[in-house]
Each structure stands twice: as structure tokens, then as C-alpha cells.
Amino acid sequence: MNFGRWALVGLLIAGCSQTPAGQASATPTPPPSASASSAPAPASPVAVPPNGPYAAALDAGIGGIEAKTGLTYSAGTCGAGQSCLGAPQVFGNTGAGGYDAAYVQMAYATAGSGSCFAYVYFAAGFWNYLQPVVCPNESGYNPVLGASDHVVVPGSCANVRLNPGFSSKILACLKDGTVVSIDSDAPRYVDQHIWWSINGHQGWMAHDSLITQSR
User: Which of 56-70, 80-94, 192-206 shows the lowest mean pLDDT across its residues?
Assistant: First the structure.
């Protein structure tokens, strides 16, 4: 027997079964398992923007009050015993530039009846609402044009400034619980805060010092 010839045949057969270097194997890869673990996760609910942006002051106010109450605004009337939001009104500057700020007041009906207030401001081309949005049980604890309000700075006092903005001159510092009168001048948005004219143009106070969420 010619062992050299058989050795050559064996080498040729082995060479045909090898995959050349750098080339993927022709053996097909089995498809991924269709088990539950590889199934796509269900889509998450679309999150409601926390405070905007909105195209108009009214839209921002409605969005804020809807988020506060969990109810959806409807232009229709409420039926007997039905919880709903309705009759929105906007007060302040509702333009689209400068230092525009305003608030939206909306009727809020549940077991009783009342109003909710969302304070809104214009910045970077859109309207947004501030936290907190409030549905107060009594008046005098959130700024409303032409009405009385309480200063809310427990254990401290709040600055009254000559003009809106933290760089403006301080004219006075009013203690917690002081009752002030909100002027009819529209609020302004300066230094990332809403400001209110008080006490017959005595000066301007930051919104944070004039609102409480618990009343």
C-alpha cells in the first residue's frame, strides 16, 4: 500500500472542512428564544410635563391645575355631584416676552366648591407654571390682584424691594404673618421668581413669601 498517497488524500479532505482564517463560519446561528424574558417590555405611560412648556398662559394654568387635582378640564358644565374643573380666568400679563407673569383661577368642584390657582410665567419662548399650585380652603393665603394676603416666612421676615429682582434696593423686611395688600399691577417674572407689587406701591415682594400650600 502506498501510504504517501493516502496521507495526501487525508490532508485534502481535512482542508476542505476548515474555515479560512478571518471568515465567519457558514453554520447558521439559531434564532433568539421567544421566551417572556426576551419579549419587549411594555411601553411606559407618557409622563405629564412637571411644569411645561406650554404655548399660552391659559394652557400652562390648566395644565398645573389638572396636575394638582387629578381632574381633566372640560369646557362643559358639571353634572350634579360630579367632580370637575371649569370656568378658567387669566389675570396678569399674558403676552410672549419681557417679564410676563400671570395666574389662572379655575372653579374646582368636588364634595364642595372652590377655586384653584396656578401661577404662570413666560421664559425661553414658552409658558410654565410654578409649584405650588393651590386650591385654598380660605382666602388671604395666596396672591390675588387687589386682595389681602399673608407673608409666609416662619421665624423670619421677607424683603420688600424697590423693584422686582434680588439686586434691587431693600426697603423693608416684613415679619411672618404680616397682612399685605396685593396691588392691581400685574406680577412680573424676574430672576426666576414672580414678584408682586404690594401696599399701594410700597415695593415688590417675591412670590415665595406670599403663598402657602397648606391653607
Answer: 80-94
Q: Which residue has the higher pLDDT, 154 or 46?
A: 154
Distance CA 137, CA 154 (A): 20
Distances (CA, A) of 88 to 116, 118, 161: 9, 10, 31
Which pLDDT band holds residue 8 (cuts at 50, 70, 90)?
Answer: very low
Angle at 96 between CA 93 and CA 100, to 5 degrees: 35
Peptide bond between residue 53 and the one before it cis (omega within 30 degrees of 0): yes
For the chain, give the number of residues. 215
Asked which of 19-23, 94-98, 209-213 is least confident by mean pLDDT, the reply is 19-23
Closest CA to 132 of 144, 117, 146, 121: 117
The CATH architecture assigned to 137-215 reads Roll (2.30)
* Beta pairing class for 101-109 and 113-123: antiparallel
- Rounded CA-CA distance 11/8 in Å is 5
Which pTM value belongs to this model? 0.74
What span, in angstroms and rounded, lies between the C-alpha atoms of 25 and 5? 30
- Whether the pLDDT of residue 36 is over 60: the answer is no
For residue 123, the model assigns a pLDDT of 92
Give the residue among 203, 207, 190 at the shortest CA–CA distance from 162: 203
Q: Where are the alpha helices (DSSP H) in 56-192?
A: 57-69
The CATH 2.30.30.40 portion of the chain extends over 137-215
